[in-house]
Amino acid sequence: MWYRLGQWMLRVILRVYHRAEVQGLDRVPRQGPFLLVGNHISYLDPFYIAAQLPQRISFMAKAESFSHPFTQWFLRKVDAFPVRREEADVRAMRSALARLRNDQVVGLFPEGRRREAEPPTELKGGASYLALRAQVPVIPVWIEGTDRALPRKGRWIRPAKVRIYFGEPIQKIPAGKNREDQERIHQMIMSAFRQLAEQKVAE
């Protein structure tokens, strides 16, 4: 109940306060598990993206965010789970795989941390690994404006315009499990981010 209430409140905030534009939401599957991958420019990103989805989503969040009792309680309530970013976190991968195999939706930011609002030039391998192992579609999403709504050192959320673009699902997941197959998915995700960023520029 609290999750759905939070989604509704965030949608109102996005519509009224941020004049949000959301495109491609019809591309998001209504049923079944999938992996959602997005660019990351603000702490607001996972909350604003999750507010758009018809189903609950479990986002990977940096382990440091779980160090404070209140933030840990809050993140657990919204189905987030920790990942240690500076190492190959086997426990986080297993947790994500378990969720996907239980028909849940998992979200992550393959850049590994907040970056500038531009097409990424480097991604970590967790997203391609999970897609290959779980054999689930990958839904790319590009968000912009949240870095102006809540800058890195900002304390208040500003009324900056926010745009969220959902891309075409990556569904042709190779059946193999070798490095070449994982690299193919990796390049598909990178290409999807570039296309969404170019779409944003074209508009």
Please give a structural write-up.
Helix 4 runs parallel beside helix 5 and helix 5 packs across helix 7. The longest helix has 24 residues. This protein is α/β, with parallel strands linked by helices and 203 residues long. Strands 1-7-6-2-5-3-4 form a seven-stranded mixed sheet. It is built from seven helices and seven strands; from the N terminus they run H-E-E-H-E-H-E-H-E-H-E-H-E-H.
Main sheet makeup: 7 strands, mixed
Q: So, CATH architecture?
A: 3-Layer(aba) Sandwich
CA-based gyration radius:
16 Å
Low-confidence spans: none
Q: Which percent range fits the helix content? A: 25-40%
Pfam families: Acyltransferase
Keywords: Acyltransferase, Transferase
InterPro entries: Plipid/glycerol_acylTrfase
GO molecular function, one term: 1-acylglycerol-3-phosphate O-acyltransferase activity
Topology:
Layout (H helix, E strand, L loop, with lengths): L1 H15 L4 E3 L10 E5 L6 H6 L6 E6 L6 H9 L3 E3 L6 H12 L3 E4 L17 H9 L3 E7 L1 H4 L13 E4 L12 H24 L1
Parallel strand pairs: 1-7, 2-5, 2-6, 3-4, 3-5
Antiparallel strand pairs: 6-7
Which features characterize this protein?
Glycerol-3-phosphate (1)-acyltransferase, alpha/beta, 7 helices, seven-stranded mixed sheet, acyltransferase, 203 residues, Plipid/glycerol_acylTrfase, 7 strands
Q: Quick recap of the structure?
A:
The chain has 203 residues and is of the alpha/beta class. The chain contains seven helices and seven strands; from the N terminus they run H-E-E-H-E-H-E-H-E-H-E-H-E-H. Pfam families: Acyltransferase (PF01553).
